[in-house]
Amino acid sequence: MEVKKLFIVVGLLSSMAVVAQQSPAQLEKARKKAERKEKINQLIKQEEEGALIYNKQGAFGFKFNTDGWGMFYERGKYKTINKTSLWWIELGEHKHPKEEKVPTISASGGFLIVSSYIYGKRNNFYNLKLGFGEQRLIGGKGNKNGVAVSAIYGGGLTAGMLKPYYIEIQDPTTNRQEQIKYDNNDNLFLDPNIILGRGGLTKGFGEMKFVPGAHVRTALRFDYGRYNEVLSALEVGLNAEYYSQKMPILLLNPEKSFFFNAYVALTFGKRK
To answer: Within a domain: residue 15?
Structure first.
């Protein structure tokens, strides 16, 4: 028993001697290493319990809006276990709720051509958004097969883009087919008897007009990805935009500068 006690005392004295021989810099390095190890162990434990633990994330998605569509790319940086800072860029289109496609059939070179157009549509209204915000975790997954629920909110700048909408007509004066856009009191543009269909898809992009604006967004995101490094989510939210002038989309209807919609988005991405 005395021999055993002697070995314990010798061991303690040896450890104390090693510590005593270490410089302050070495001791500080060892302390920081131990703190990092403890932090990593805590993060692993939190992830096993369903928390979303990562450094940054990147995602893209497609929106189905009540007044159009949108597609976006998003970047996020982890701040705390409950908070992630976000920025996003989005391209979309607003459509007037009264837009209606009109089918047409015309003959050309002995062939029947089936087409369609939107009666009275003056402009395609696209929007490009740059936004900044925050994602706040409301409920963790509980386990890796669960669903994490987060609130997203933020806003930023918007560039409204008005592209003239062209239609193809049979000019009653010249009897020639030509593509025209609305030009103030243009009776040809609104005469359904001479309209053959819509103009070319790329027609009008060189005449696009930009209108500055701003937007805000709020949403709930349901992340059902099986693993924390994979982002697979369904998002439901609200979006509001205001522009510096009224946006003419459909003739014979009031123009407005404020747009409000609801949306559902499918989001996919990765975390690191």
So the answer is: no
